[in-house]
Predict the 3D structure of the following.
Amino acid sequence: MSLKFAQRSPQEVPSAGSTGKVNLELLAIKNEMAKLGSGMVLEIETDSISTVRGTKMLITKAARELGTPWRHWHAGSSVYAQPVDATKKRGRPRKTD
């Protein structure tokens, strides 16, 4: 594969694709996650089953920005999210002899 290089002035090339817009869905999810009461589960209704994956990705991104681990799952077109209890460990306990 051969590559061709050219040097151009900034006025000759198209601008970058980033428009600097804020993802409003991410902000909405992050606000709801911050307001969630203890022991509660956040339910997010999506318009179709095809938007479930994107919604789960936004939950993961919002949890990372909030600095708290969350788990999420879905049933049909509804997505559920719940903060993970840091003291509770997943999996089988280790055997001690």
Summary: Strands lie at 42-45, 70-75, 78-83. Residues 28 and 62 are 10 Å apart (CA to CA). Residues 52-66 form the longest helix (15 residues).
